[in-house]
């Protein structure tokens, strides 16, 4: 690359011509995928450079290019993946702007602008990194694409990934190591990606982060290329193939050309490497990478061609389904009505369950709405206990307050209606929540109803989404108001005439039946038809009735099994003492006794 004698660096003519044919095609495909902004399931052949923080990755890449252009520093400097496409150009012998060797760079986010000053390339990499990842050492997965045109490089595509770090600094999250490893695995896990594992010479290869993560993605090591850096500080007795610039050389602005010359002198003068000098060094690494990448592309070409052809058929079919765009206003209006009709039909199909794309993983459309009504809403209503929040003491207090200063035989309806209204009002929240659930599902259905024709016109799609969303939002409030009005209507009029309502005569009838089922009927022998007996019988009946009403339990007498009552008179049983009957039960008991329906037990 940067040496005066460039002939040993050139690959064989066949491999060179093949590399100059295949690699630019792959680079062009990578540019298309990056510029399209869509996710295309095509994994293109490339070389990913991995290693721990400050392992020398940047030095290796700069040595392959032959120029200083990457950001440097003691902390994390590679914070975004850098896709570097090295493109070999012919030597300019015509005396152009760049003389004999025109070298420049182009960024994909700056199309058409050429950076001849490589320090400007470094500054732009830093600026673009900060625009996406921030200025406080944050990281981002968004790739920076850079092309380097030079006659001193071989056609290679490299991806410089952030170095593996364990201690977070600045704005980096606490799980920075896990995030970087995940980012690296996204690139190197594909069989089409070659792995350039960079390890410093002063560390144990058994503990190398680069080799460890490369082993996870490539257990057999068929796609992994190992590179040893920092030869100047490695222990004696160990060997390496590449000598990079030290940090001191970088601080002194030692050029790549001088470093490569020193590297060549090192291998030619070192007794251990003198016989291997023609196979060591960065130029040989570049040549080897080019040959491996070309061979790898040749192996991946059949599968790559098949994947691209399959995608082309799918996209062509989708494009044909869109039809031609009409030029006249009448044709455009017809197309608009057709698209809106298809959108309406798709929405109706989702509601009716007639959509061709039926989900098997979750409920959607009309089925989801039915589930909301029949399961979620019904269950929420069942969870509302009508007696919750109504202790007996509150009911008693409400009844007494309704009586005022008077004692009433029957309970007034006012406290009943007040308490019932309060309980009916508790149905409002579950009903409003149900309306919100239905609204969310309708919004989701509106997004799912976007037909392919709408995908072709993003402005129209956005406008349709806005109009439908606004329509649903504007009708949510009226729906909630109607729900509240329905609840208020139920609260305003308590329908006590409903067949299922227990009150009034129904309550008296049930109380009457309860009394008849719990009392013992004692037959009464007929007295002689004399005035004295009638008077005595009526007097006894009246006294017994009053005894029943005035008993401590306000209940009735339940004699023992033998039909004999003790001398203590009329007493209520233990159960009656604990559960005092209401005034209605007392009245029914008294009337029943007066009319002869029930006969109290005889008091001895």
From TrEMBL:
Q: Which InterPro entries match?
A: Dynamin (IPR022812), Dynamin_GTPase (IPR001401), Dynamin_N (IPR045063), Dynamin_stalk (IPR000375), G_DYNAMIN_dom (IPR030381), P-loop_NTPase (IPR027417)
The record's GO CC annotations read: cytoplasm; membrane; microtubule
SUPFAM superfamilies given for it? P-loop containing nucleoside triphosphate hydrolases
Task: Write out the ranges of the annotated region (Disordered).
Answer: 524-577
User: Could you cite one Gene Ontology molecular function of this protein?
Assistant: microtubule binding
What are the TM regions of this chain, as residue ranges?
Answer: none
Source organism, top-level taxon: Eukaryota
* A Pfam family of this chain: Dynamin_M
Keyword list (alphabetical) reads: GTP-binding, Nucleotide-binding
Please report the stretch or stretches of sequence annotated as the Dynamin-type G domain.
41-302
Q: What's the name of the protein?
A: Dynamin-type G domain-containing protein
**What organism does this protein naturally occur in?**
Chenopodium quinoa (Quinoa)
